[in-house]
Each structure stands twice: as C-alpha cells, then as structure tokens.
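re: that complex we talked abt at group meeting.

here r the seqs, copy pasted straight from the sheet so there may be weird spacing, ignore it
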Amino acid sequence: MSVATAEIRKNDKKPRLRIGYVVRQREMGIVLALVVLVAYTAINQPRFLGSQSITDILLNTAILAVLASGMAVVVITRHIDLSVGSVLGLSAFTVATVMQDNQGLPMVAALGLGLAIGAVAGVVNGALVHFGNVPALVVTLGTMYAYRGLTYSWAGGQQVTADEVPRHFLRFANSALLGVPWLVLIALVVIAGVGLMMRNYRIGRELYAMGSSPHAAGLAGIRIARNTLVAFVISGALAGLGGVLYASRFGTVDASSGNGYELQVVAAVVVGGVAVFGGSGTIWGAGLGALLLTVIGSALAVLDINQFWQQAIVGALIVLAIGADRLVAVRIARSLRKRDSHV
Amino acid sequence: GGTSKGDDDGAAGPASTASADPNAAIKEGLKIAFLPKQLNNPYSDVLAGGGEVAVGELKGEYKLVGPNDAAASSQVSYINTLIQQQQDVIGIAANDPNAVCPSLQQARQAGIKIVSFDSDASKDCRDVFINQATTQGIGESLAKMANELAGGEGEIAILSATPNATNQNAWIKVVEEELKKPENSKLKLVKTVYGNDEDQKSFQEAQGLLQSYPNLKVIVSPTTVGIAAAARYVSSSNYKGKVAITGLGLPNQMREYVKDGTVSKFALWVPSDIGYLAAYAGAALASGQITGAQGEKFTAGKLGEYTIAADGEIVLGPPTEFTAQNIDQFDF
Amino acid sequence: MTTDRSASSGPALLEVLDVSKSFGAVAAVQGVSFPLFAGEAHALVGENGAGKSTIVKMLAGVHRPDTGTLRVDGHEASWNSPAGAKAAGIAVIYQEPTLFPDLSVAENIAMGNAPLTRLRQIDRKSMRATAEALFTRLGVRIDPDRPARGLSIADQQIVEIAKALSVHAKVLIMDEPTAALSGVEVERLFSVVRSLRDEGAAIMFISHRFEEITALCQRVTIMRDGRHVCTERIEDLTVDDMIRRMVGRDLSTLFAKQDVTPGEEVLRVEALSRAGVFRDISFTVRAGEIVALAGLVGSGRSEVMQAVFGVDPYDSGTVTFLGKRLRPGNPRAAMNAGMALVPEDRRQQGLVMDLSIERNVTLPRAGALAKLGLLFGGAERREATDWTRKLQTKFGRLSDLVGTLSGGNQQKVVLAKWLATGPKLLIVDEPTRGIDVGTKAEVHRLMSQLAADGMAVVMVSSELPEVLGMADRVLVLREGHLVAELSRADATEETVMYAAMGQQVTA
Amino acid sequence: MSELRGRLASWDTVIIGVTVAVLIAATAGVENFGNGTNFTFLILDLLPIALIALPMTMIVITGEIDLSVASTLGLTSAIMGDLWNRGLTIEMIIPLCVLIGALLGAVNGVLINRLGLPSLAVTIGTLALYRGLALVVLGDAAVADFPWAFTGWVTGTIGGGPIPNVLIVLVVLAVIFGVVLHATPFGRSLFAIGANDQAARFSGVDVARTKFWLYVVSGAIAGLAGVLWTLRYSSARADNGAGLELAVVAAVLLGGVSIFGGRGSLWGVLSGVLLLAVLQNALRLQDVSGQALNIVTGVLLIASVLLPNIITGVRDSLHRRRLRAVPVKSS
Ligand SMILES: Nc1ncnc2c1ncn2[C@@H]1O[C@H](COP(=O)(O)OP(=O)(O)OP(=O)(O)O)[C@@H](O)[C@H]1O
Ligand SMILES: Nc1ncnc2c1ncn2[C@@H]1O[C@H](COP(=O)(O)OP(=O)(O)OP(=O)(O)O)[C@@H](O)[C@H]1O
Ligand SMILES: [Mg+2]
Ligand SMILES: [Mg+2]
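got the structure back, here u go
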C-alpha cells in the first residue's frame, strides 16, 4: 500500500475535546445540586445553616460516607457488597458488648476491633467471590443473611444501652478536635485515604482496570485474586468501622442495628456517580452522594415537607442520577463515533 | 353493585358464649406464651419478665417468642405457631390491631385465651386487654408534664413510636384534647413525628424537630425508645438546657439524663406489673374464672384484686412520675 | 522441520518447540516449531483460523500449550500467566484490542508498570510524558488524558502499539496490528518497529497483507490448518509461493459450483448508508445466484449484511426483498419474509452455547413449530433431527449443549438453524471460518446445491479461494464503499485483491 | 442414561430432592408440623414470595433483576387502602391494583429496556421511589375495614379443610408460568436472551420488547400479591412487605436459577420457596429462633452456587491432569 494515497487523519487537525472533564462533571453536578438545595433551604429556614444544624448533618453523613467509600471500591471493581449492613450490625454489637464488659478499654481498641471484625467478614466475601467463582451479588446476599443471623443468634433479644457503655465511648462521637467532631474527621480521613489509594496508587488503578474490563485485566497480568480480596476487605473493614461509629453515636445497639442499610449505601454510591458496571466513579463522589442523601433528608424535614415524601424523592433522585449518567455516556460515545469515522 | 366501604357485610367473629365460674380453681401447668411487639426492646424484656414471674407462681409453662421488627404482619406467623403448639394463653402486644386479628380469631377458635396488653388488638379478637393506665390518665399526665416544663406557654412537639401504634395514638389524641383546655391555651403542639421505636430514627427525628422549630420548649415522647433517644441527642447538643424532654421512659435508661439535667421529669407505670397481671388474667380466663365480661373480678397475686371494665379492659393503675429525687428507688 | 538458520542470526531468542493446543474438538495448533531471532522481524502467515492467534496467546501466557515447550535464550520458559510472559520480556499486541475503556489513554499504556513518585504514588506527569513521547514517535495525536472509551478501532490499535512499545521488550509480538490502520500510520509503525529490531529485539508480525510482510520481515513461517508448513527467509519466497503454501490446495477441484441460470430478482439494496460504517451501497441478488462480498477485514461487509437483515440500524437507503420494502431494524420481519443470516461470529451471534443443539436449531422456528402456542416435546426434536441429519452433523445426542461440539459441527448447527426456516435468501457471513477442510467442501457443496434449487445466496468471505470458487458475482467493499462488481469470469485473485486494497491493476 | 445423570447433577433437581427430604423429616420429626392447620399457615406464609418469584424467575433467567417488587406490593397495598377509603367498590379496586402494579412494572421496563439502564441500579431506585410513594399515598394511616367476604376468603380454606383458597390462585398461576417458561416459544426466547442476548437478537428475538413485558408482568403480579397481602392481614399499610425482595431473590437463586441468566426452572424455584418456608415453619415450631434461619438461608444460598462450581472445578482439574499424563513427544 502506498503511503501517498493515505489520508491525513482528521484528528490531527482538530484540538481534542477533553472527555476527562465531562466525567468529572458528574461530581460537579452533585455539588451543584447540593448548593442549590442548601441555598433554597437556608433561605426558607436560616437555622439550617446554624452550627448545630451543620454539625448534625455532618454527623449523620459520616457513617454513611464511611460505608459508601468501601462500597464504591467494590462497585468500581464491578462487584457489589450487600453484606455491609449486617457487618455494621455485627461490629456494632460486638464492640458495644466488649466495651460494656471492659469499661476501661480505650477508644482505639474499639476502633481496631471493629475494623478487624469487618476485615474478616470481607475476607470471607472476597474469597467466596474469587476462589468460589460465585457472583458477588449471590455471595453478599448470602452473607448478608448469615452475618445478621450470627449477630441475632448471639445477641438474642439483648440490647446494649447507652448507660451501659463507658462514657468516653459515647463522648467520642460528639467530642470534637478543633471544632470538628471526631466522627466527621474519621469520615474525612477515610474518604481521603481510600480516595488517594484509588486515585494515586497502583492497586487503586488496577481495581479500576478490573472493573473496566475484567478480560483485559487478566491479559495485563493484574493480580486479580489479591485485588478482589483487597476490595472486599476494604469494604468489610469500613463497614466494621462504621459499626463502631454507630455504636458510639447512638449508644443503644441491638442485633438489628443497620438492618437494611446496604441499600442506602448502594444508593449513595450510585447517586455519587459510581457506575454499577464498574470502572468509573470516585470515592469522593460516593462521599458526596452520602452527603446529598443526608442533606435531602434534613432539608425536607426542615422545609416542613411532609416527611413521607422524603423517601419518594430519594428514589426519584437515584433513578435520575443513573439516567443522567447514561445520557452523558451515550452522548460522548455518539459524538466520538461520528468524529472518528473515515466514511 | 359491588362492595364498598360502609357496606355492612356482617363481619363474622365468634362471640364468646361461655359463662364465668368465679370459684373455679386456677389450673396448673397452663401453657402461657408472650408475644411482645418485637423481641429486642428492653421495655418488652422487662414486661415479659413480670409475666415470667407470674407464670412461675401459677406453676405454668412460660414461653417468649416474637419478631425482630415491629412490622404489622410479622407477628402473625408467631401466632400461628403458638396455635400449633396448643398454648393455653397468648399474651400479645399488637403491632397492628387488625393485622393480627384473623389469626387471633383462629387461636380463640382453637380454645386459646387471648390477653392483649400494652397495645391493644381489635376488641373482638381478644378476651381481655391489660391497660397500663387509662388512656385518659396517661394523656392528661403527659399534657400536665408538658405544661409544667414549658412554663405554661410555648411550642411543644411529640415524638411517637410507629404511626400505627394503637396506644400512642390514643394518648396523643387525649393530649390534643387537653391542649384545648384554657389552662393549656398558650401551649402549641407544632408537630408529631414518628421514630418507629427505632433508636436511630427517633434520634434523627428529634434532631429534625429542633432544627425546624427553634423555639421548641418541650419534646413529649410517649415511648421509651423515643424519649431515650431524644434525651441522648439533646444532652449531647447545644440545645441542652433550652429544650425539655418528657414522656414515658424506663428509669434505668433515663437515669443518666435525669442526673445530667437534660430531663427533669417523666412518667411510667411499672412495666413488669403489666406482664404479671396479663399472666394472671390469662390463667383466670383459661381456668374459667372469668370470661372477659364487664364486672367480673379476679385476683392477680401480689397485685390484688382487679375488676374488668367495659370492653374487657383491665386497668393496671396510675403511672408513676420519676424525678431526680425518686429515680434511684427504681431498677427496671 | 524446514527451518533455515542462516549463520548471521545466531542462537534463537525465543523458540517455539513442537507445541500443540486444542480447544475441545478443535485442534487449533498441532506440533508447530519455529525460532525468533534477535534483530529480526518474523512473519507468521496463514488463512483465517490457521492457528496464528493461538500461538500468540501461548507465547503471551494466556493459553498453556497442551504439549510442547517454549524456550527463551535456550532455557525452557515456565510462565503460565500473562504476568509471567511480561516479566520474561515479551510484549504482545493482541488481535482484539484489550484496553480499559474507563481509564485514560496514558494509564492504559502504563498499566502494570506505571512510573512511581518517591511516595510510591503514580507519577501522572511522567506517565503522560511517556504516552506523548510514544505518540510522537508513532506520528499520531491522541490526547493522553482522554478515556479509551470511544476511541476508533484504529486509535485503539495505536494505543495497543504504544502499550507494547512502552515496555522495551526483548520480544515484540504483533497480531494483525495494521488491520485497522491507514498507510501513514503503518509507515510510522514500521519505522519504529524497524528501529526496535535494529536495536536487537525479536519481532513477530502477523498480517494478511503481503506487501507489509515483505516490507518489514526477514523471515516467514507459514501455517495451514493448525500445522506448520515451512519457515523460510523472506527473499527465498515470492508472494505467490506464500499464498500457494498457505492455501495448500488446488482451487479448481475443491469447490463444486454448479452452473445456474439466475432467476427473479430477490433482493435489491439501494443507497444504504450508516454513518461511520458504510455509505451508499447498492446491489441486487437474484434467485439461484451466489453473490460474494469480498474485502479486507473491517471493510464493512458484515455491517452491510447485518443492516440488510435488520439486526443493525441504518441511516438511509432502502432494502427491497421479494418486491416489498423491509422495515429497518426488524430481523423478525426479515425472517418471516424469508431471509436468513448466518452470522460471522458463531460464538457470539450464531449460537447460544449454553443451550442444547435441539433448542439452537429450532430457536428461530419455535413460533412456527408451536401448536396452539405450545411446544410439545416431539415437534422440536423431529425438526432438529431432520436438519442435523441432512447436514451430517456429528454429535452425541440432541440434548447436548451446542458448546460441546467441534467448530465445524457448530457451524453446521448454525446452517441447520437457518436452513430450517426455508429461506428464499441465505446470507452467510464467513461460512467456513474455523472449520476443517472436509467440512468446508461439504458446506460449499451444500451452498451450491441450495443455489441450484433456486435459493439466492449472499456470501461474505475473507477467503479468496472460497470467493473465487463459489461466486457467480463478486462485490468488493473497501472502507465502507462498494468499489467493484466483478463477474465470475472477471474475478481473479489479482482483480479482487487490488480492488479491496484500492490500487489499480498494473499487470 | 447420561441424560439422567445430567439432570441429577443440575442444581434444581438437587434442590427439589432436598426439599422433599426436609418435608419428610419435618413431618416425621416435628410435632404439629404435619397437621392440616399448619399446612394452611405454611401456604399463607409462602404465598407472596411464591407469587412474586414466578415472574422473578423469568427476569433472572434473562439475566436481569427486579428489586422493586416488594415496594410495588407496598404501593399497591397503600393505593388499595386509599381507594377503599374513597368509597370505590372492592370489585373495582382489585383489578385496578393489578393494573397499577403493571404500570409500575412498565416504568421499570422503559427505564431498563428503552434507556438501557442497568436493572440492578434502576430497581434499587424504584424500590425507594415506590415505597416512598406508598407513604405519600397512605401516610401513617392503616386501612383495616375490608369486607369479611374478601378477607375471609383469603385466609379461608376450601371447605374448611387444610387447603387454603389462595393456593388455587398460586397453582393456577404457577402452571401458567411453568407452561409459558418451559413449553412456549416465548419461554424458549427467555433462555436464549439470558444465555446470549446477541445470538437471540440474531435469531429474530426482540430482546428489549420481551424484557419490557417481563417487567410489566412482574409489576402486575406484585400488585396482585399486594392485594392478597392486604386482604390476608386486613390491613393496608405503606410498609407492607418491606424487605420481601431479597427473600424472593434468595428463593430464586436457591432454586437453581443462574444470576447470570440462561439457566433455571420454575419447579426448582418453587421448591426453593417451599424449602425456605418449611425450614422457617419447622424451626419456629421447634422454638428455634427465626434468627438461626437467617444463617441457614445465607449458607444455603452461597452453597447453591458454590457446590456446583466446586464439582466442575474438581472434574476439570482431573481431566487436565489426565491430559498432562499422556507422554509428551520430545523434539
Ligand atoms: N478460546 C477458544 N475456544 C475454542 N476454540 C478456539 C478458541 N480460540 C481459538 N479457537 C479455534 O482455534 C482455531 C485457530 O484460531 P486462531 O484464532 O488461532 O486463528 P488465526 O490464525 O489467528 O485466524 P485469523 O486470521 O482469523 O485471526 C480456530 O478454529 C478457532 O475457532
Ligand atoms: N460497534 C462498533 N463501533 C464502531 N465501529 C465499528 C463497530 N463495529 C464495527 N465497526 C467498524 O465498522 C467497520 C466494518 O466492520 P465489519 O466487521 O463489518 O468488517 P468486515 O468487512 O465484515 O470484516 P470482518 O472480516 O471482520 O468480518 C470497521 O471499520 C469496524 O471497525
Ligand atoms: Mg487471529
Ligand atoms: Mg465480517
């Protein structure tokens, strides 16, 4: 084939449209929605921006955000973890019981215990998914039941109440460092840490790669087994950590703590722009999703909108978010096909 | 044609035709089962504990079963199981007065006596109802405490259990009536919210109330879960001292908040006595001493003699008010 | 073995020794041996399905050879994963792009060996710089920050090339890297590859374009039906020699095309266009006629026929079948009107591998076989037995999963499935891809027979001998345009190939 | 012979066997399990799960999922209560509720098949949306005064015997679904779509339209289940059936339907439903807490996919070892 007959490629001339930014706009969309919502609510009810109100919203977001960070990692890897609510319950009850029996135990031990319980639960999930070759949806639906059953059969009808756990354990959720509550700090550290790992470290990028194309990931020599385990351990450990925070924040814990939480976490992740088919989305997006869901809840309460509308609005929002995501993707694909075609 | 609301299709429910024999001896070995709203609730635990004591005194067989969530339908399977196990008495705190009804009817057809307590089932599907206090009495007491804590005027709000909870709704209705009276005319009930008897939900509902109503003076929570959660939130927020919490609570759960000043006054009956009375009423029914008709009398162990009021209601007695002074005398 | 080791080459850098690989009943590679020398580009040629890609995948650690060994620097290689092959210094460009659509182009290139900062974080700046440098070397402009999703096939291929170049491998294996590229890019690629070669890397190059092979390679290995035919120095062979050894049989005897007088017009396609895929395609097909659609891989043949059948949409133009216009995008309507399409990708489009042979054969016909809307056991079984017997399909029992059959027998099941619908027009896309010589002849005999019985046949094929042997008329597509229509008499290897490549016949 | 072995190895056959075994064991070993009244209760308890599992089986066989079913049930229940309060006749309300269920299903169908959104995400969204709308419709109220003629029929039995009236509904629908899935061209296409939707499209199956109708049917059945639920408990409430979706999915997967689509049978699913209900009932009669059943459910669910995988894995590795054992030609 002679060189002379070949056409000059069109894309040599045109400056490239920067697709990366469009992807990032997904999160900008959430930020925008947040700003509008907060502004509207604040105009109607200035106290919404009061320090107590903001603290409350952040405190309420913190646990959801911690779990959403872990869930985002798993979803980015093209899996799902429906067991987080049960892991939270298991961890919350265990930690509360241990603290009840050992009043002198420091908070760090509680946090460590929760993380460890969650990590073990995550290892089981990850191992079943990878080595058992069982779809994550089936595995974690199964362990969702199993972990919950474990907590129930151990806890029975018992409840650990706020007055039975050590003071410092309860105070932890509300006391602050430089005005920022510990719970919020922990959530921020988790989002930043996991976010950094997913963005800037090899393992994070490999998780994105696995979610983006499992087949190509195998060909690229990525260590699928280790990475799958890591993803589930992160999700499990963060759910365990969430359990400690839950116990500390609410004080009263029983075997049903966190029941049904998994769908809320998935919702936060999806609203936060993490694609359910893996490969895209960010941790801070998931955190924003958690914040948005919480703010919607608080705003609707403050705006004196019938509280029954709240769940419907959240549902509609989730559907909307998925639809918008898809629309953007389709439009990009179409414009690229047209632009690059030689015909 | 067709059947629409209001058409009376002659709802069929078996009417009790048996007559009472006040002198009948209490049978031994009666199988008495307790089915509270949900299992993992300390109030339920204390309550059923009283029942266990009574069943022990009556030399019966005690059993405690129940769902983990307070959904309307989840008690039904348990009733069915208890029918299969041929219990003699079922004591139930109904999550929904109607949802449990068909099953309770079946139980009665199978000869099982039904004692509802704490939260009533529909009148025609139980034999007697153990009311912790008269609805009127509790409602008045709640309104009175709210008035005192608000200093006679200002905004108050109610944090209730589930939206369908029979007893809470009845009390709230009385509170609303009370507020129309002249001495309460400066009190304004701004909102009623529901924490579903879940700790977390109640906690967040309390938050929402305080945000929406900055001038709120009192939160009245006629449920033990709600009052504990609201007190915990307020004690850890900067609303502490500005907003008073009152309602119905367990002394053990509230002790901390009474001591730290968040709560100065709340009320409750002695829950274990409800269970205790329910067990004795059940035994009396199963032994034929009573049938549930108005005016019948029976003796409930250490609690003494009780008379059945209209609609098969048995009232335990007036609620106790707890304050910093007396709270240490109670342990439940 | 006919390996010619010229003294200048020294010892082999990588050696393939008597390797075999089967997939179920398909023996993809059987006892193949050849060496790759440092500083040399080595071509691997063979027809579709000859086993080239399978060899590549064994070298890459994707497949493990059933028997035989691979040697690197004289030592037996022991990798059994892509990571192992990578560590041994082997870089591979696969036939199908293997990019991560959600990651940026730069990340795709760096995946697995991204540059790290002191804190072990990924060094995006240097990653981007690396990508940009590679693109400059290849003479293309692709934004390293854009996601790989939405890249054209050509750009994807270039990213694959950049990926392989980025690792500075000892051995670079390229499976049809140029299939989607235009001349400029091919030239750039070759100059880069030449410089790598001259720096001492061993190159393995697979292509169906002989001028590329002669321009780049020093040595060639020819494969046929999974077997090694010969390994020679390139200057010892003419292109004709290569083709003859590749095809390895006499064209005239293999295909038993009967002569037919074409009947009524069955299909008329007018000005059919689909943005980015094909444009302004018009042709007709008559009863009893076999029309071949020839062209290079990716020229748009399959897309045209899929649009005609209705599984793909089209933007403009008309399809008239038996005098009636067909609604676009409705395969069911086309089917009911009497059209059948045997798709090119058996595994993805032709068969449902997890269903039984019986269910596959009767899938398009289930509605017709049902009585009162119900399918009683017997009807499907009878139909399937009938057609599989007609096509002499070999299998255990009708309830076996179709995925357990050999490739050739799978192909027969696809044919059975569509012949059972009694079509007036049969479109067959690569009817003999991946099936053995005997079956191939059978399929050809069958097609010829069907045409003689009055069925119209459109055959898309990449195999020139098949096209020349079977077709009454040959249509040639190039880059989505219909560039030539040749009668049986005019169609020769040269005329078809030159039309497909866009060059005049200069004799 | 080998066909028989193939059937024996498939999970749905195993689960039918396990169910029969558990049934026999429970009848023999658990007091009061075998009597008629208990049978009535058993059927009434499993009815909503069994009903919703019928279309869910089809949806999962096509490789999709519908998590919004329980919320659809709740919403139709709430609407039923609301319409009843507004004075509509029950004879009108019931078909209307089924229709509304179908409409809610159609919304899912459009979002998933027209817009091409992933079904898992969409139905998590509508799960929240429909439940929320149920609260909007009925709020915290409960409507309880449905006519005895209807509530009594739902809880009643045929001639006062052990067979509940509603079992007729279930049997009729199960037969219809079974025949459609296993003996009609439509059913054939569902398996084809699930195993390879591209090949199904190339075979003339309208994949998007087929899936759309499945969601409509799923919604309609969930609506019917909502009606029956409301009548059984004489209570229309917004929270009716909350959390039921996961029980249904668990039963479907336990019944041997592959979550990736293309494989499964309705009989397997129905025995999965029955197995879970029998275990729950028998354990409760034995005074084993319902919580232990959570563990059993979870473990069964994972085992139902894990065990066949392990078996094929072991078989493959044995096969490979045999291949290796053949002496390699030396060059
Ligand atoms: N994963 C697989 N499973 C089953 N059969 C396979 C698999 N991969 C390849 N084959 C079969 O092996 C044979 C050789 O295929 P291969 O891809 O090596 O051919 P090729 O020479 O690369 O052809 P082409 O020029 O079309 O790329 C074909 O018959 C093909 O169908
Ligand atoms: N999904 C797609 N998106 C964008 N472009 C595509 C898509 N599928 C195919 N193409 C492009 O359409 C053109 C025609 O491809 P097609 O598969 O029809 O070629 P062909 O001539 O049939 O070759 P083959 O020998 O592979 O069958 C190619 O340039 C290909 O890259
Ligand atoms: Mg190939
Ligand atoms: Mg093609």
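couple things i noticed - The CA atoms of residues 221 and 247 of chain B lie 5 Å apart. Residues C 52-53, 95, 175 surround magnesium ion (ligand 3) (CB under 6 Å).
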